[in-house]
């Protein structure tokens, strides 16, 4: 389908290990009499990962953490072209969900049983992709939120803070980082980077690790140190991690990861999913404000 989708939704393939083997979570909807993956429409100003975790929670009672991006499904409905974007997901917690007019049943099934029970063939392919992909950890590269203009700042540049818009962007990052279950925060020692990760650090009760190597001043003098630091972070990557840096430093940060550099706007997030053999997938999330 070549037309731009008029309706955009997101959801997930939620997996768990059970004593009987790997299981996947399906929902039943009486109004369609179907068994399908949890998913739903994006709300205004919502980024797709936020939509996915919200819809999974609302339709199943599962609080989830997103993993790598899966193939999207596109089809036509009465209102026009529709696209549904999926992530492989894991359970953080689960509460019972009472049946209602939207979802009549929530059921964990062995993968093979789920593939047989699914109503839509396209969703079978999404589950198969989730199961076939290797285990991964996410490394989220964050360009710091909008900072105060240099001409309006008379102090040391490393202490230059965020603008009002930037503070709003930093707050909006909380749900994006939470969607991927970020457990480690790494930042340039500059105030504008630390404050970009600050709201999430407070919400998740995490400490921000700061490095002078990632500041603009240090990176300009010793770019090799930036590449070395990023290579070490990648080598020790054992949980979802976010790293906040500056536009001039980003090329060296990507070089240290062995990934092609891509220009980023302020407060943009680029999620890199690394498996045992290297980069598996990547995706970009631009700010809505």
TrEMBL record:
<dbReference type="InterPro" id="IPR015797">
    <property type="entry name" value="NUDIX_hydrolase-like_dom_sf"/>
</dbReference>
<feature type="domain" description="Nudix hydrolase">
    <location>
        <begin position="5"/>
        <end position="131"/>
    </location>
</feature>
<dbReference type="InterPro" id="IPR020084">
    <property type="entry name" value="NUDIX_hydrolase_CS"/>
</dbReference>
<dbReference type="Pfam" id="PF00293">
    <property type="entry name" value="NUDIX"/>
</dbReference>
<keyword id="KW-0378">Hydrolase</keyword>
<dbReference type="InterPro" id="IPR013078">
    <property type="entry name" value="His_Pase_superF_clade-1"/>
</dbReference>
<protein>
    <submittedName>
        <fullName>NUDIX hydrolase</fullName>
    </submittedName>
</protein>
<dbReference type="GO" id="GO:0016787">
    <property type="term" value="F:hydrolase activity"/>
</dbReference>
<dbReference type="InterPro" id="IPR029033">
    <property type="entry name" value="His_PPase_superfam"/>
</dbReference>
<dbReference type="InterPro" id="IPR000086">
    <property type="entry name" value="NUDIX_hydrolase_dom"/>
</dbReference>
<dbReference type="Pfam" id="PF00300">
    <property type="entry name" value="His_Phos_1"/>
</dbReference>
<dbReference type="InterPro" id="IPR051325">
    <property type="entry name" value="Nudix_hydrolase_domain"/>
</dbReference>
């Amino acid at each position: 389908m070549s037309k731009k989708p008029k309706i955009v939704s997101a959801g997930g393939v939620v997996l768990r290990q059970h004593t009987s083997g790997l299981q996947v979570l399906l929902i039943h909807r009486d109004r369609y009499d179907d068994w399908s993956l949890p998913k739903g429409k994006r709300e205004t100003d919502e980024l797709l990962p936020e939509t996915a975790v919200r819809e999974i929670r609302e339709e199943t009672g599962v609080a989830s953490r997103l993993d790598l991006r899966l193939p999207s499904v596109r089809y036509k409905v009465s209102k026009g072209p529709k696209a549904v974007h999926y992530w492989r997901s894991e359970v953080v917690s689960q509460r019972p969900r009472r049946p209602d007019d939207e979802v009549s049943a929530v059921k964990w099934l062995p993968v093979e049983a789920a593939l047989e029970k699914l109503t839509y063939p396209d969703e079978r392919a999404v589950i198969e992709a989730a199961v076939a992909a290797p285990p991964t950890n996410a490394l989220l590269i964050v360009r710091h939120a909008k900072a105060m203009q240099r001409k309006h700042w008379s102090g040391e540049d490393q202490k230059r803070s965020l603008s009002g818009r930037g503070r709003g962007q930093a707050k909006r990052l909380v749900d994006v980082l939470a969607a991927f279950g970020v457990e480690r925060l790494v930042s340039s020692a500059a105030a504008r980077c630390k404050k970009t990760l600050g709201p999430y650090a407070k919400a998740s009760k995490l400490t921000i690790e700061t490095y002078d190597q990632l500041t603009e001043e240090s990176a300009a003098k010793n770019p090799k140190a930036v590449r070395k630091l990023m290579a070490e972070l990648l080598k020790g990557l054992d949980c979802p991690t976010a790293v906040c840096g500056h536009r001039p430093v980003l090329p060296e940060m990507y070089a240290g990861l062995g990934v092609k550099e891509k220009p980023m706007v302020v407060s943009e997030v680029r999620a890199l999913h690394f498996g045992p053999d290297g980069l598996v997938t990547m995706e970009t999330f631009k700010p809505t404000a």
